[in-house]
Amino acid sequence: MGLATTVRAVNGLAARWAGVSDGGTVFSAAGVWPLLAHLADGAEGQARAELSEALGLDAGQAPAAARELLAAMGAMRGLETAVGLWTRRTLELKASWEESLPADAHGVLTGDLGVDRLALDAWTVKRTGGLIDRMPVGLTEDTQLVLASALTLRTRWLSPFHETELETAYEPWATTPRLALRRTSAVLDRVGVADTPGGHVTELRVLGSNALDVHLLLGEEAMRPGQVLRAGVDMLARRYAVVRGPQLPLGSVGPGLTVEKVRCARPEPPSLEVTTVAYDMSARHDLLELHRLFGLTAARDTSGGHFPGISDFPLAVESAQQSTRARFNASGFEAAAVTAFGVAGGGFPALRHVTTRILADFDRPFGFLAVHRHTGLVLTAGWVTDPLPSPEWDGETGW
Q: What is the pTM of this model?
């Protein structure tokens, strides 16, 4: 087994999560997967079997895979990761399980909920650079253990956008001026179209300076968010053929995508003109509401213990949540995810030449994947429904 196998497993979880997502959201399977792996390592019986299925990997292989994944993410430029473990002083952990976690991960729960909440929130702020300010865990008097991960990524575009006001026929966005981002490129293969079972999907790859890229995904209007995001993960895995910009025919060739011949005053190379929107979005997910997806059905039963590999004290998952945030603007992208398990217990010149122009307009709800270019690991994914408003326009002085 190697990193490529683990990446496929993490991306598989991302695709399944995308399949049950609806509306504006942002989530990170890469933030959940290592925690599920460590829980699976300490589980037995039905809980272990369910966690293995959710992981897409045998529980016995999971802790080594999680360590390899965290090490790989820790080596990615622009990405910071951390794992934290907090336990009651009276909870005795199995040495083999504790040693599978990073050496500096272990902290203490005092039992004073106010004090513990402050400590967990401070860890969250520090590990995400303030993008997220509260750890998503439901602390109770019964909480024996908290296992958390933090993931923060930042990248700057190789080619920045410029800001303007969005022009769109999509009425929910047209009622309030929205902040549009535009740029022109001569690199046509950044855009492509795939024919998927749910419909055609247009993909635009926005490259970051540190190999952290964002793939924008626009599906046909009848497609659900989950269909579009799953298609994006499948396109990343090359399960669907993608027709890239240089091979696209003339006309309306995909959602939001038009190829046309235009006259110009002097010889010009073909171009790709992109319009999208700026966004700053947050979401919070209760993973226990999707307990089957994450293999937590049996593990959430607090009437008995499910993790003898963690401690002889009977333990069950009482809380499993993730908080996420993503910001996309003219200069770059940043996102953070914190996942926590609580375990309880001018002018018109002469136009004599012809060139090709591709217009890509993401001017209605669309999906995105933040992807590590070299491994294909999906770090965060989301669906944009509420772009940032446009600054007020001053007709004399500009923005």
A: 0.92
Residue 305 lies in a domain: yes
Same domain? 231 vs 371: yes
Q: Which helix (H) or strand (E) segment is 147 a member of? A: strand 143-156
Residue with tokens 């951390």: 82
Provide the residue range defining the domain that includes 239.
156-278+348-384
> Where does the pLDDT of residue 1 fall: very low under 50, low under 70, confident under 90, or very high at 90 and above?
low
- What's the number of domains the chain is made of? 2
Q: What residues contact residue 171 under an 8 Å CB cut-off, 6+ apart?
A: none
Sign of CA dihedral 204, 274, 272, 187: negative
CA dist., res. 239 & res. 230, Å (int) = 11
138 in the same domain as 160: no
Exposed, middle or buried by CB within 10 Å (0-12, 13-18, 19+), for 386? Answer: middle
Interatomic CA distance for residues 149 and 337, integer angstroms: 8
Residues 90, 175, single domain; the answer is: no
373 found inside a domain: yes
Whether residue 147 sits in one domain with residue 70: yes
Q: Classify residue 393 by its DSSP letter.
A: P
Residue 397 lies in a domain: no
The full length of the chain comes to 399
pLDDT by residue (tens digit) across 182-208? 999 999 999 999 999 999 999 999 999
Give the CATH number, domain containing residue 92. 3.30.497.10
**What's the 3-state SS for 149-190?**
EEEEEEEEECCCCEEEECCCCCHHHHCCCEEEEEEEECCHHH
CA 39 from centre of chain: 22
Per-residue pLDDT tens over the stretch 129-170: 999 999 999 899 999 999 999 999 999 999 999 999 999 999
> Which CATH number is 258's domain given?
2.30.39.10
Quickly state the pLDDT bin for 395 (edges 50, 70, 90). very low
**215-254 per-position pLDDT tens digit:** 999 999 999 999 999 999 999 999 999 999 999 999 999 9
Structure tokens at 253: 């060739």
Residues contacting residue 136 through CB under 8 Å, at least 6 positions apart: 284, 321, 322, 323, 338, 339, 340
Give residue 106's identity as a one-letter amino acid code: H
